Amino acid sequence: MTLSPPVVGILGGMGPAATVDFYRKLVAATPAATDQEHLPVVIWSDPRVPDRTAALVGDGEDPTPVLRAGVAGLAAAGVRLLAVACNTAHAFVPPLAAAAGLELISIIDVTAQRLAATLPAGATVGLLATEGTVASRLYHDACAAVGLTVLVPEPAEQARVTAAIAAVKAGTADATGAAALAEVLGTLRDAGAEAAIAGCTEIVLALAAGTDADPVLPVVDPADLLAHEVVRRARELRPDPADAAS
Amino acid sequence: MTLSPPVVGILGGMGPAATVDFYRKLVAATPAATDQEHLPVVIWSDPRVPDRTAALVGDGEDPTPVLRAGVAGLAAAGVRLLAVACNTAHAFVPPLAAAAGLELISIIDVTAQRLAATLPAGATVGLLATEGTVASRLYHDACAAVGLTVLVPEPAEQARVTAAIAAVKAGTADATGAAALAEVLGTLRDAGAEAAIAGCTEIVLALAAGTDADPVLPVVDPADLLAHEVVRRARELRPDPADAAS
Q1: Which of B40, B43, B73 sits opposite A48 (nearest CB)?
Q2: Could you tell me the superkingdom of the organism this chain comes from (chains A, B) (predicted)?
Q3: For position A74, what pLDDT does the model report?
């Protein structure tokens, strides 16, 4: 018997808490009654990746070399699918995945497609994300391609989003940060947004630190959508989850 | 600049939920204010590992080949430390780690040493674990080496422990399973145990599904102890967490 390598590779570490959360969502998205029915996965979680936003909006160090090392490590492990548990990193990863021969399941594209399938044509969607993701226009472009318009917070409000993300990365997320995000969501709703994208893997964790059970706007979680799409695609590639023969 | 490989390897997938929980504990155990201060980690989570208990107490398939493939995959990724997020797997892993040149940080030894440091000499410790871990006598031997006696549940009570573990693996953990574990802990306490080992990575998750805030016996969580020891040892090996040069 030759054991086939794990089919799913997760590039994480941006940040580590969001990687924990993404793998938790992947496990929860997998229909399985025993260990053996879950997906074999390799997670490359190297938090030394330089800040993606600093590279996109300023003169920060290029994260490409560390991202390339992670993609190469996953490819060497034999995975075929690549999921990246960081929205902002999608500004850098597509050519690295292609060069390594991995099929990237884009968190951006999966989210835009889901929004297009559930919102009225031409709807406006708010975006809570890092300044890097906002500046990269990743969600703007993917949503425009499916007929949706993206609305981003004004600079003062964006600063509150950035602070809430930083608090999760520092392990200090609290109800204050969640309340700030709720106010930003309210402003986006008042400006015409019909839903919002939690477009940074830390945003959902920041919102969860609050006590408000009723969000002012429907919030879609790209990490959760990505988890379900990874399960669907992995099962297409290897229909029998217990298949151990290559 | 040559990027050094991640120093920590985690062999998981036994089960996936426990792997999520272990990585969460590792992140929580790391003093860090930014992503870049966290430990670079590779997680090999292949749930195709045949049931460890079935191999230890019956005629189940030998898990060694799949475990060896995971250890080899982590070694090929360049890690130096190996943490295994499954107690029962420690009946198989030590020679595989040695053959691959990896330093195994044993969840069993870390736990026995902590118990010896916190309990009176000669104390009795209860064990909630799989039938495989019980039969392997991993904890019996490690605790005997530090002067502690391990007490295990009677067969009917062990069956309730086994059922609670299976419920976590199936994603159906609930308050009933947690209450059953609380009763087993009560029996162990009445028989003289001064503390108990949550000696299967799923036990803490099973207990957390309950509503009881006050355990009948102090329960030590080997996964949490292992997480802290991995952080300590990784920082010894690579004192500057941002060190990216090999």
Answers
A1: B40
A2: Bacteria
A3: 98
Check if A143 is active-site.
no
Nearest to A76 by CA among B179, B73, B5, B136: B73
Give yes or no for a contact between B200 and B165, defined as CB atoms under 8 angstroms apart.
yes
A169–B35 C-beta distance less than 8 A = yes
> pLDDT by residue (tens digit) across B118-155?
999 999 999 999 999 999 999 999 999 999 999 999 99
The SS3 of residue B127 is: strand
Find tokens 């429907």 and name the residue.
A218
Flag whether pLDDT at A25 surpasses 60. Answer: yes
Q: Tens of pLDDT along A125-157? A: 999 999 999 999 999 999 999 999 999 999 999
Predicted ipTM > 0.90: yes
**Interchain contact B16–A (C-beta under 8 A):** yes
Cβ–Cβ under 8 Å, residues B89 and B63: yes
Do the chains contact at B32 and A242, CB–CB below 8 Å? no
pLDDT digits (tens, 9 = 90+) for B3-41: 899 999 999 999 899 999 999 999 999 998 888 889 999
Domains identified in chain A and CATH numbers: 8-106+225-237 (3.40.50.1860), 108-221 (3.40.50.1860)
Select the residue of A34, A47, A50 nearest B169 (Cβ to Cβ).
Answer: A34
Q: Mean pLDDT over all residues of chain A?
A: 93
Separation in Å, CA B80 to CA A54, A244, B19, B29, B238: 31, 27, 19, 19, 11
8 Å CB contact between A122 and A94:
no
Q: Do B6 and A44 touch (CB under 8 A)?
A: yes
Could you say which residues from 105 to 164 on chain A have a Cβ atom under 8 Å away from some Cβ of chain B?
Answer: none
